[in-house]
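hey
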């Protein structure tokens, strides 16, 4: 059995397919200096916002950081968050043909927004559609996986 350093050393020679729930993680950073009059909750004054791929996208980012070539298969919305995800993957070096993220009109990209103040998460807001995917969308994902399976050393379901 190979040691962990030996396995990591081989990642640049590997191609991995990640299939899963792709989402956009949004971090809203701010400060608190008062409590809301409507309810006993902090009022966060927004200072900056950061967006990063979340869910299966986080797995993709970690594999890329280890040097692997990564293919992606999953669902996003036909919305700004979905376009942001694709742009993020392309900017990090993914070929567009390796990005098998399929959109469905009217279905939003899953987003998880974390409100952070004084280095502490105050709350999280989830926006997602949990309804089953239509068969034609499942078939498109399956077709992508089937076409590309011969190129990969491993498939990760996330």
């Amino acid at each position: 059995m190979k040691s962990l350093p030996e396995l990591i050393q081989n990642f640049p020679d590997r191609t991995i397919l990640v299939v899963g729930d792709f989402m956009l993680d949004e971090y809203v950073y701010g400060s608190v200096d008062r409590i809301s009059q409507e309810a006993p909750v902090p009022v966060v004054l927004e200072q900056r916002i950061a967006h990063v791929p979340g869910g299966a996208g986080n797995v993709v980012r970690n594999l890329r950081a280890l040097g692997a070539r990564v293919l992606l298969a999953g669902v996003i919305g036909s919305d700004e968050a979905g376009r942001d995800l694709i742009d993020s993957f392309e900017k990090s070096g993914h070929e567009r043909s390796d990005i098998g993220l399929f959109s469905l009109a009217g279905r939003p990209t899953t987003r998880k927004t974390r409100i952070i103040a004084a280095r502490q998460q105050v709350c999280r807001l989830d926006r997602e559609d949990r309804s089953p995917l239509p068969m034609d969308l499942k078939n498109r994902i399956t077709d992508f996986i089937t076409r590309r399976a011969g190129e990969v050393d491993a498939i990760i379901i996330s």
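The chain has a mean pLDDT of 95. The radius of gyration is 18 Å.
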